[in-house]
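Subject: design request, 258 residues
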């Protein structure tokens, strides 16, 4: 059982806020926290009232990566299952609902991997980031899969080799973040994203996330074939019928809660 206190779950409006809550250890990840995060993500996916998921941390750091005082152990895979941290990265990246990182402070190693896995990431000004793995004699192995598509080979190579600390402002330039805001504006900036997402049809939002992840991995021929199929299916959907009649009638579609 995950320690409920180490990872918190709270619904705020249309979003489920999942908060890493071990500020005295800068939210360094244990196996227990990784499974807590997975359970809370599943809960959010199962609740139709929740339209977006927010990942954040309590205290001065978002997440200091693997718990280095516990041999970096983020949970063992049993023989057949994938590594639990890989499972977590892919649950964030490929789960049906959008995940927004509300990056309240430092993100290092695996913590920075979590930032990269988010669909949208907004950080406070001046936060420190680093792929610090090489400094302790390991490499950013699992997270490279989610980092490379965002930063590209050029920046990823340099940052993985140097372990350099960089600020949120640089992370914005690198393409790891979508916005940098003063700390007191983080929650309202994130709420703005949640409100925008809640205006989209729930099925359309699910398919839009899947579209980006899928097309990015396919060759051009397969990507066009996938796109043609999905758009035909969505134009024929009940949700699109409702969206189009709401547009024609100059009213809000049924999924928008005023
Ligand atoms: N694992 C275990 N404990 C940690 C970790 C960690 N990853 N990060 C911080 N802590 C602990 C510190 O040991 C310290 O504990 P203490 O009070 O018992 O001495 C406490 O959290 C506070 O840490 P400070 O370093 O004092 O906090 P500060 O705010 O000055 O700095 C920062 C924060 C930059 C995140 C710093 O703690 C740090 O560099 N941490 C290590 C980051 C790292 O290299 N992570 C591993 C990457 S490898 C991977 O993820 C696979």
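Subject: RE: design request

Done. Sequence follows.
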């Amino acid at each position: 059982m995950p320690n409920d206190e180490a990872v918190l779950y709270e619904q705020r409006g249309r979003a489920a806020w999942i908060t890493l809550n071990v500020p005295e250890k800068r939210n360094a990840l244990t196996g227990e926290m990784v499974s807590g995060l997975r359970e809370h993500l599943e809960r959010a996916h199962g609740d139709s009232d929740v339209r977006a998921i927010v990942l954040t941390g309590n205290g001065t750091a978002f997440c200091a990566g693997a718990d280095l005082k516990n041999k970096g152990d983020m949970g063992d895979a049993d023989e057949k299952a994938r590594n639990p941290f890989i499972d977590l990265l892919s649950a964030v990246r490929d789960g049906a609902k959008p995940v927004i990182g509300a990056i309240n402070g430092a993100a290092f190693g695996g913590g920075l991997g979590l930032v990269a896995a988010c669909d949208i990431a907004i950080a406070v000004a001046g936060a420190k980031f680093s792929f610090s793995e090489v400094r302790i004699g390991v490499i950013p192995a699992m997270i490279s899969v989610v980092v490379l598509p965002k930063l590209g080979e050029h920046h990823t190579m340099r940052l993985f080799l140097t372990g350099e600390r960089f600020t949120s402002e640089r992370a914005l330039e690198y393409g790891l973040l979508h916005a940098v805001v003063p700390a007191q504006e983080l929650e309202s900036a994130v709420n703005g994203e949640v409100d925008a997402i809640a205006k989209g049809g729930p099925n359309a939002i699910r398919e839009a996330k899947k579209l980006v992840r899928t097309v990015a991995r396919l060759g051009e021929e397969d990507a066009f074939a996938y796109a043609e199929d999905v758009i035909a299916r969505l134009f024929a959907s009940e949700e699109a019928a409702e969206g189009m009649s709401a547009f024609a009638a100059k009213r809000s579609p049924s999924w928008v809660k005023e």
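The radius of gyration is 19 Å.
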